[in-house]
Amino acid sequence: MRTTIAVVEDDPGLRRQLAEILATAPDIECVGLFPTGEDALKKLGARLPDVVLMDIGLPGMSGIECVAELRKISTTTQIIMVTVYEDSERIFSALKAGANGYLVKSSPPHQLLEAIRDAYGGGAPMSSHIARKVVQHFHLIGPAAKPKQNLSAREQQVLELLSTGFIYKEIADKLGIGLETVRTYVKNICQKMHVRNRVEAVARHHFDGD
Question: In the chain, where does the domain assigned CATH 3.40.50.2300 lie?
């Protein structure tokens, strides 16, 4: 079963280039190319792909705003921001809106494909200093009202494994469950912890565990 991808990018040349790179991977299927966030939201509807590559600087609705709208539809779709350069504040804003990671547009094709596979498998492609900013964010806003108490024993187990760096496939193997079952647990964890994705769930878990 191939990983489905949608690309939201306003530059037609780069959009075409990304589609060509995706077409070289036998395990990846591009299911949509969109020039704007509005177009993506309208045409994707509730049938979101496994991964979305999202330009951070779109005309009209920004990539960050589009991420927030997509997160209202799905907590399990992996969203990778694509940016011209590593603008820490904008990337951090995108992560707070619900993105799972980011790529610089100049990244070589193999790195793009690796990031997609990493995100789909439960990783979060981003530099360590950006990841630290996410954790620091939770130190600034203070502790939650113990949402983790609502998690089942298995959900707590999955969250603990995510927090120690395991990706979805490794968690599935370790617990003897299916990959989609892990995704369902992560979705439930996000809903119960009132966070938008696993990046926030892990950051919240690290903070609350301090």
Answer: 3-126
